[in-house]
Specification:
The protein contains ten helices and two strands; from the N terminus they run αααααααββααα. The protein has four domains: 91 residues, no CATH class; 86 residues, Fe,Mn superoxide dismutase (SOD) domain (Helix Hairpins, Orthogonal Bundle), CATH 1.10.287; 62 residues, Iron/manganese superoxide dismutase, C-terminal domain (minor pseudopilin epsh fold); 51 residues, Iron/manganese superoxide dismutase, C-terminal domain (minor pseudopilin epsh fold, 3-Layer(bab) Sandwich). It binds fe (ii) ion. Its EC number is 1.15.1.1. This is superoxide dismutase. Belongs to the iron/manganese superoxide dismutase family.
């Protein structure tokens, strides 16, 4: 191939590369980079015959542009990491003290979900039902705090039940309000869509399973799509009522099995002795690790 044709081919490749790079930069407001592109384009467009020296100069311009791009991307990444860290720091500081939960505001107007859910339902559901969960949880937390301070655990079972019932009510409704929007419907996108397809086969199958789960709840309750960190899968669960001595939206750190199969052969009916022994074998390093992982997950406090 003739030398000039070879150079021409190379120049075309540079132009193609520059076009892609510029397209990537479109939308990024950075006068410097646009000035550099303009210089490169006028050089590429004006020149017809190329010498080795001129090609060498062009390579220099391209290299400069490339290095500048890499630097700017790194700076942007650092900025966004810093922003994220600030945000996380703010969230770490924001916490709900014992007995100080609040009713979160609805993220839309009471009539916003009509005709699907009426204004009347939304108003009652939010201001009466959800508010009573918040009040009940606050009271249960304060009473358990009092029990710890006075070493009086006579009513613990009652307050644990109350904390489970009202706590689950408060946390699940807080998720529920945000799970809904007047502009909703359709299908999920992105990573969630991929995960749903992987775990349920298709969005249609997922929706069918979730629908059936919701229909089959006996009496009152919830259908719940969860992420299970252990198998790394999405799963659909449902819960009757919503408590059974638990609070949804919490992560277990330390658990003690008190089913009889866990101690009966050795301790017979002396569960207390078994629990005493448990404290001698707790693996706090494991609990610390679970806490370190779990506490990275922070939602806006309410
Ligand atoms: Fe409800």
């Amino acid at each position: 191939m003739e030398k000039q044709a070879q150079l021409r081919e190379y120049i075309d490749q540079v132009a193609e590369w520059a076009k892609q790079l510029e397209a990537w930069w479109r939308g990024h407001d950075h006068p410097d980079i646009h000035y550099d592109f303009n210089r490169l384009w006028s050089r590429l467009e004006e020149q017809e015959e190329w010498t080795d020296v001129e090609v060498y100069e062009l390579q220099g311009m391209a290299t400069q542009l490339y290095e500048k791009t890499v630097r700017l991307i790194q700076e942007q990444q650092l900025d966004s990491v810093a922003d994220r860290e600030n945000e996380m720091e703010e969230q770490r500081e924001a916490r709900v003290p014992i007995g100080r939960h609040q009713l979160p505001p609805l993220p839309y107007r009471y009539d916003a979900l009509e005709p699907h859910i009426s204004e009347e339902i939304m108003r009652l559901h939010h201001t009466k039902h959800h508010q009573s969960y918040v009040d009940g949880l606050n009271q249960a937390e304060k009473m358990m705090q009092k029990a710890r301070e006075t070493n009086q655990y006579g009513l613990l079972k009652h307050w644990e039940r109350e904390a489970a019932f009202h706590g689950s009510g408060h946390y699940l409704h807080t998720i529920f309000w945000n799970n809904l929007t007047p502009n909703g419907g359709g299908n999920p996108h992105g990573r969630l869509l991929e995960q749903i397809k992987e775990d349920f086969g298709s969005v249609e199958r997922f929706k069918r399973h979730f629908t059936e789960a919701a229909k089959s709840v006996e009496g009152v309750g919830w259908a719940i799509l969860v992420w299970a960190p252990r198998p790394g899968r999405l799963e659909i669960l449902h819960t009757e009522k919503h408590q059974f001595m638990t609070q949804w939206d919490t992560i277990p750190l330390l658990v003690l099995d008190v089913w009889e199969h866990a101690y009966y052969l050795q301790y017979k009916n002396d569960r207390s002795a078994y629990i005493e022994s448990f404290w001698k074998i707790v693996n706090w390093r494991d609990v610390e690790e679970r806490f370190a992982q779990a506490s990275r997950l922070r939602w806006k406090p309410f």
